[in-house]
Specification:
Shape: globular
Order of helices and strands: EHHHEHEHEHEHHEHEHEH
Structural class: alpha/beta
Number of strands: 8
Distance between the termini: 54 Å
Strand order of the largest sheet: 2-1-3-4
Strand content: 5-15%
Radius of gyration: 20 Å
Largest sheet: 4 strands, parallel
Helix content: 40-55%
Amino acid sequence: MTEPYDALLIVSFGGPEKREDVIPFLENVLRGKPVPRERLLEVADHYYHFGGVSPINSQVRDLIAALQVELARAGVTLSIYWGNRNWHPLLTDTLRQMADHGIKRALAFFTSAYSSYSGCRQYRENIQQAQSEVGPNAPAVDKVRVFYNHPDFIAANVDRVRAALRRLPEANRETAAIAFTAHSIPHSMADHCNYVAQLTETCRLIADELKLSPERWKLVYQSRSGRPSDPWLEPDILDHIRTLNSSRQTSLVIAPIGFLSDHIEILFDLDEQARELCDELGIAMARSGTVGTHPRFVMMVRELIQERLGQITDRRAIGTCGPSHDVCPADCCLYTVPVSRPGRPPS
């Protein structure tokens, strides 16, 4: 018989909380990746623009607080821990704390709705590395399934897009274009996972609920990094805005459905760069909120936890793809980070 879970582990990306954290944080993020130093410093400036503070950690704290209430309401008594990939609280420190507290088996929730190397498999590798560093007393960790097509995730995003549409001039709302955005990833990563297919299904489900015609919406990407010579998913949001302008589109909602909370990539790439371009081109633009702590999203997380606890048997999903697996296959989201050849600097 499967042993019960005695803790919930929230696993996230992490972010700096003061100016001095920015460079070491980004060095953690980019370690082993073929990203030029110039790109690191460019991204650092994005963080400095906001005082060196990423909103992601505070938003994880808000999610944990909302989950504590939601789980208590449902009678779920798991202790909640939190560990990050790239900045404090780091996963190794959190698993060590869990071991000290006598936690034997934890259920993990990753702050990523989609399957990809960086959004799923790498987090599992991070947990395995942390377990190795903590030693034999480290807790076992399983994860809940990805939830891109869960009805509550879709409903929360629909609410956010509707609210953004209401912020546009009334005359523009019925004809506004919708640009769904997600973090771009290399083609070499996208080719070995269901990231694009899952994002496309999320967009379609939201668009269907909003009764949007297919020509009104498009999945686009943002926040590309890496070497210019490496192909990444396109089109970029800024290129898409220029295309809309050339077709005389005058209003736009940008919906960052690839993110669960307002990262620096959203605050800088969308709220600043995309808005500046829209203003320059005369396009009325509204950016929809991420799901954050939307009640339907928090309810969904609680439901996914109860699935794995055996308290709920109906594994809800809408659309054409059905619920995702609980246990990832061995070859799920494989990716080998490209490296520069010896003796050659990154291009």
